[in-house]
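Q: I have 428 residues here and want to know how they pack in 3D. Can you give me a structure?
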Amino acid sequence: MTRLVSLMAASVVTIAGCTETPSKRRTANRPPPSEDFTYDTTVLIASPMNGVGVPSPLTVTLETGSAIERVSLLANGSPAAESIISGPGTTDLVVELPTGRYTLSAQGFDSAGELVSSHGITVRIITSTTEPEPWVLVTSPRDDSMVTNPVAFTVEANQSVDTVELFADDWSIGSLEPGEVLRYTFSGTDYPREIDAVGYDNGVEVARDALTITPTESSAPGESNVNDIILTQLSSYPTDGSYAYWWPDDSYGWFGNPHDIYYQGSLYAEGDHLNRSYCVGITLQVFMDTFDILDGIYGLDGSLNGVTWDDLDELRKDWFVRDLYGSGIVEAMENYGIGSRVSDWDDVRPGDIIQFWRHSGSGHNAIFIGWERDDAGEIYGFTYWSTQNSTDGIGYSDEYFGTSGSRVDPNYFFVGRVAPPEDWTPWY
């Protein structure tokens, strides 16, 4: 374990924003990701968790892959600490920061000095944990980020705050309790909006937080009969543990599919002799088997919208998520004209394919089944079909939106819908 102490100046400068993944980007040939979509180039902030209040100095624990040789920690865009990495494992960076809101961003560099990975969280530096002053923190979306309409907000606060009211450009857009999700559709998009979060204790203002976001246009694809075909595929897989979960670190050459996958009459991906799978592998299997059915119905001559053998491998790399917090399946569908993103939760349907990320940095890929709603009808989680340890392989499971840790970040919940062949669009 590496340990480094650094001091950051009290002044805070430009805040780092989110970046969008370039369309159709190509990467060098590399193995599929390890569990939770980690590569040898991955860097993750393991501690503190997103959305917590912590005193200064604080210890930031990073987990790094074998290709990372140097890490740098930014606090609101300013260098706070860095360290040379001697190999895969954990690294502790101790930093001292003034009180306030911080976006902490860990950056990983390879042997050539190239930035290859990053991971960020939002925390609030407080004066004390024994007698803390009231504080509130918007944990999602990130400060200075671009987010798709409708925007989902989550907040965290200490016990002195019971309710949080959100304002956009001084206009109230709703109230929520810490840990809940508030969704709001902005009438104007593609320009910055000033967000204020006001924390109350029995109706009295006791704390504030502020950030800037840029809402973008939503996407609402039409209904698709392909969803019905996808759902039919699920019933053919037993959920009794005989199709186990397995995501080996040395999975190069095996794409996590339990059965053989053929394309244009040739074997594309060999299955597992024990019918094991991991998440992106089983959804790719379901998608390719669904394509075989569409091929028979529509007479497509074995062509997935003109995708060649080499193109299929690039589609798979998109599907398997090229970057931490990437949309994966959405990129694959849109890059090859076979589907699109569903951004409004009201438009999500069973049989859509989802890629979601937790505040911890871990992710999962699955088939959407339905929403979990509270007594007021508000969405707080979802049911899905995939393969995972918790169900001893293929099965149905639930996850919940929240503010930190293993809860799902609602702004990194990506939904893709496969379009029927008549709606496929040119891409080459």
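Q: Anything worth noting?
A: The chain has three domains: 1-132, 133-218, 226-423. The CA atoms of residues 167 and 314 lie 43 Å apart.
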